[in-house]
Amino acid sequence: MTDTTIAVASPAKPGYKTTEFWLAFAAKLLGAAFAAGIIGDGTEVSRIAGLAAVMLTALGYTVSRTMVKS
Predict the structure, then answer these.
(1) Residue 35 CB: number of other CB atoms within 10 A?
(2) Looking at the domain assignment, is residue 22 inside a domain?
(3) Mind listing the pLDDT tens digit for each residue in 40-50?
């Protein structure tokens, strides 16, 4: 006789309770500081790179949370 058990997934934690959220939050703050010219050399390239970092971090976090919830 074989024992077949079904693993029941625990519900996903709220986003703010995950390490992933806090790392994404820190990356967004750092990217925003670059985009605003607060840190870095303040050139147009560093500002665009900071803005791109913010957008890509937001996109990555959204995609990963969507995968967790589905």
Answers:
(1) 19
(2) yes
(3) 888 999 999 99
